[in-house]
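FIELD: query
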Amino acid sequence: MPARSCRVRNCRAPWLAFALLAALLTAAGAASAQTTLLGSVPDANTTLASGPHRIELYLTEPAAPGSVVIRLIGVAGVDVASVTAAVDAADPRHVVAELPAPPPAGDWLVGWSARPVNGGAPIAGSFPFRVGPSAPPGAAATTADAPAAWAVALRWLFALGVTLAAGGALLSRIAAPGPFAPAPASGAAERRAGLAAAGATIALLAALAEPLLRSLFAPVDASMTFAQAFTSMPSGWLLRVAAALLLALLPLALLARGREAAALPAGVDWAALALAVIAAGALAWSGHPVAAGFAPGIANVVHVVAGLLLAGGVLVLAATRDRFPGDAGPREQRLAWTGVVLALVAIVAGVIAASAVLARPADLWSSAYGVVLLIKLALLIPLLALVVRAARRRVGWSRYALLLPIASIATVLALLAGAALPLIAKPGVEMNVSLAGIDLAAAVPVGPDGAAGLLHLALQPARPGPNTLVVRLSDASGRVLPANQAPMTQVDLQPLDHEGIASTVNPLLDASGGYAVAGADLGSPGWWQAIVTLVPPDGNAQQVPYYFVLPDPNVTGAGPRPAADPAARAVFDRAMATLGQLRAIRFNQRLSDGSGPVFQSRTAVTDARPGQEQAFQEQTPDRDVVIVGDTMWLRQGDQPWEERAAASIPLPSTWAETYVNGQGFRLGPVQEIAGQQTQVVTFYLARTPRSAPAWYAWWVNMETGDILREAMVSTRHYMVYNFSDFNTDITITPPAPRQGPPEEASAATPTG
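FIELD: result
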């Protein structure tokens, strides 16, 4: 329970921040020492605009030719491709596997195994990636974040530029006597061509600037070169650049021929309109409705294209003061009814697209995304009034001297609001989406001597429905057991707080024994328990439990939000009352960031009592920390103890403050822990200005109300705690100097 006081972003005591940082550094160091994969193409957890043609691995040691097998695995454990990789003759640590065909959009997992060139134990691993629409550069990752200013400005410029280009071509066609007749040359025609050229040039420069500014203003923890920014641009960016380039060249080429050629021929007008539609559609393909499915994505494209054409016609009409010389009446009516049709199409398509993003009506006024939608709708009212009045032929366009400028200003503001929508986090997105799948680990004894090893459980895509499970067992160096020594595995899946279907799967070992794959149907959202059973050849079985929520917030951006159960709230309230009376406790912690590394520790903490100050003690395989009163002692490995001042300790009696705003309480099953019956209860803590959202599961002793186990999922945090020795006489004393290395913490013992 102590580390949750940090709630990822808010640490209530400096010593706790130091302890958590040290823990993460320890985990990162252990991971780098144990990994056998230095890098890959595609990168682990990356999102690609299109499927890769090959898989590349960069190993820590040379691989024997012909020994590397790479499997591309889809949802539910289905093999899409299994190929033998070629070892690079110049660098045997680099292997490449050409895929039969690029995988389509979806979530994918790469499983690989190899035998070192020296003939030692095999090495193996797995990593996920995703193919599909990626967020535009500079987009807000969570509802608490704002889009990057440079990204908003570039989208504004691109949308405004395409709008002017589209409006010029549209008005040129409406001004023409017929759909395939050239528009008459006039001062207005020249102004239309100039606006179209200027708009397309602005759009082109804005699109070209995106990868440059993305590389210059990338966060420190996600810095990238220009080449990396260029190659990782979302799908549709190159299409926008090409369309804007051609849009700029068309009117510029004609303007260069002189004033008499300023009126664009019919074919050029239609080509410009087609290019504007392509550019607008490519811009719209980065919106949130696209991620919701093909139909909402198409609706969003239609909405944006119709809206830009309508806005472009009004803006260019106002800027050029076009009065349609000659027989103006029919052309004015053609313009008016074109505006009405475009407005209706934009409204209908916009409602379809927005309904796929807004999960509930309240999102319209309770989220930034919904508020911007409402503002955009309000700004379009003058524009709708203009086209409807004109269509009814009450007066000619020349009489709209006041309404046309007002509609133009409102149109520009609505255009800017709509262009920024894809950069605003959609309602319900609570956390940074940084993983394409989760990889949880626990320390376990492996091999005949019981040495410490790691048991990994990877889940892809970590959403309700069919999922791929990968089980991987390695020693401390990252080497897997040979096939004749690898244990048989079984994974028992059980829902903890919902009416899901429990199941048992038996992952099948690959040829090297390095990892085992199975498909599982996790069809409902909420907390899940996965108990991995290992049965090694000697028959001594052991079980390791893992806990996760679906949809996973670090993969999808939002975790489950169930309705509250009053019976569950009663169990929670009883546990809170017991927690408030806590004065001393011991617990084991298992912490993972969801990408493979794991940190485990043993901790004791006690309030001050007669004859003893408040105290804290933590033991890990690599570090010991002792705090007594206001003094802390720290020892790294076999180094001598260091003494320093310590900040205040968040005492057990204050832990309950972390959970006072819990919501969404749900009852789970009754389970036995250490011979005691417990009631599972789950709940959720919403985001606050100082902390990230978090999902919790408690195992509450049905007799005493003590919390025997806690699981928590938050931003890149997957924690499991086992608690014991509630309010017992725990004595923590300052360390005495001693010779030799410290006693090693029991990292090889599963901590639940």
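FIELD: remark
The chain is about 35% helix and 25% strand.
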